[in-house]
Amino acid sequence: MQIAITFKNLNSSEALKSHVSEKFEKLDKMLDSEADAHIVLSVEKLRHIADVNMTCDKIRINATEEAENNMYAAIDALAEKVKLQIRKYKDKQRRHLAGDKESIKTNGQAPESPDVIDG
């Protein structure tokens, strides 16, 4: 995974860079091909904000997370949010390829035939 990290209103530190790399390398294992991630870490007053734009083949993930007074908590929450989005995408692809499509109108049941009344 190619990771680009941008710091806004925050001094860059190797500890933050390594923490981001560690979290997103775990997510890279979930993806089928190489991904590019652009991560922006910023501080606005008391809010620590982590933002990611990730692209991989057909999937594009955008997520933002913020925490009070702790950038590491924002990064952890962001990684968890991205993990859920990847899992949702992969489950959707798996259902589509398996052919488990159900009609919304029938809710998975066979359509009922109209009752015939003998007169």
Largest beta sheet: strand ordering = 1-2-3-4
* Helix coverage percent: 25-40%
Mean pLDDT: 85
CATH-defined fold name: Double Stranded RNA Binding Domain
Number of DSSP E strands: 4
The ordered H/E elements are EHEEEH
Oligomer: single chain
Largest sheet descriptor:
4 strands, mixed
Name given to the CATH homologous superfamily = Ribosome hibernation promotion factor-like
> What is the global morphology?
elongated
What CATH architecture label applies?
2-Layer Sandwich
- Which residues form runs of ≥5 with pLDDT under 50? none
In terms of DSSP E residues, the strand content is: 25-35%
CATH class label: Alpha Beta
* Annotation field: number of helices: 2
Instruction: Please compute the radius of gyration using only Cα atoms.
Output: 22 Å
Helical/strand content category: alpha+beta
**Domains counted in the coordinates: how many?**
1
Report the span from N to C terminus: 72 Å
